[in-house]
Amino acid sequence: MKKYTDKCREMEISIDPEKVREFEEIYDTVIREGIEENQPPDNFKKVKKRGKTAQTKAKNLLDRFIVHKEPILRFLNNLRVSFDNNQAERDIRMMKLQQKISGTFRSIEGALAFCRIRGYISTIRKNGLKVMDAILAALNGAPLLY
């Protein structure tokens, strides 16, 4: 699926709906096979005397794959959606590092300023521009706007 969407993105062609249906059928088949292979044993423990019987971690994961099928496969229907969320993780990494080092921000204004600066730098990088030139432009009163 990822190779197909990467190829479509690279060649700048639209996604074939028939191919998407094929991929969704494969996804559903894999889920069904996973459920068949991960049936709980007869003597699987109950967490409490009442309530549902506990499930295995694999079964819980399969259930999440069923419930969240549409968001998981969103990259297959929309080429603007990336396969992974690495960019989003990279975007928040500095915020978490700042919190880890300092414990927290001293004020809401400081947190907002930090986010604004990091957002500006992230946008500049995503557009393939030089960060220092953009920061200097912003400090000189002419920020690059996208």
Protein architecture, described:
The protein is mostly helical and 146 residues long. Helices cover 65% and strands 0% of the residues. It has eight helices and no strands. The radius of gyration is 23 Å and the shape is flat. It starts with a helix and ends in a 7-residue tail after the last helix.
Order of helices and strands: HHHHHHHH
Judged by helices, strands and strand pairing, the structural class is mainly alpha
**Overall outline:** flat
Number of helices: 8
| Proportion of residues in β-strands | under 5%
Helix content: 55-70%
Described by strand count, sense and barrel closure, the largest sheet is: none
Low-confidence stretches: none
Q: What's this entry about, in short?
A:
With 146 residues, this protein is mainly α. The protein contains eight helices and no strands.
